[in-house]
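Sorry, any thoughts here?
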Amino acid sequence: MLDQIKGLHHVTVLASSARANNAFFTGTLGLRRVKKTVNFDAPDVYHLYYGDERGTPGTVMTYFPFPGAAPGRRGTGEISSTAFTIPRGSAEAWAERLTQARVMNLDRRTAFGETRLTFTGPDGEGLALVEAEDARTPWTGGGVDGDMAIQGFHSVRLRLADAAPTAELLRFMGYRESAHEGAVSRFEIDGNGANVLEVEAAPDDPAARQSAGSVHHVAFAVADRTQQAEVREALAGQGFHVTPQIDRDYFYAIYFRGPGGVLFEVATNEPGFAIDEDAAHLGEALKLPAQHAHLRARLERDLEPLDA
């Protein structure tokens, strides 16, 4: 069993409009945009990162907004929802805020003894705010007071046709099953605060079709490249096809496909988002990977303005 993984690192989702995406996460949810860059493989597409003040691993939601992308189809083999932690007693204030923002499919429920607001984002992605104890300091520069501001990820939920093989993988990765409610099993790890995964068995649901609103991958946090290499070797030893270590500028990444179809990443906590801009101005300037630096003039002209 692995002991290097310390919770979630980031979640990356597909979107259809960069401007609408930016407005929702920085405005409605009050997160900080900590990086404005482009997709390594498709530089005409933004890669936007939202999180706490520093973009701490375990707080960062990232998006690839492909202009005009069709909606994805929800189903099995995907992350069906991403949940953030909010302070206890703040769900009512959030419900009012989300209602005023005309957020779709807002619902209040209790799951695993926790108050949970569920809703959908601009592209129909499943999101939730969960009241829970959390020592992490929220970003309050986005217009949301500290007594209700988002503190980071609470969990992600995987919807799978067959949950058993993924549950076995999670145990190997260091997670322990802590609760079960209906078709959903909860797994936890001692980590960075983003310590929960939920696995929902849905054998009768159709397979998901990935497009706008679909989670592209979920990333797990490790301290550094040495620990990442150890995880890579261990996963390969279990028969998973794992990529080499890839430099993503702000972290190093390895990828592999879980048995339920979800793309998993293991990402390093280092070097972080302040490596190429001052921490006080994260996410303001367009930052380009070195191989795309020659495209700057065209990209600055053609990419959709975010704050217009």
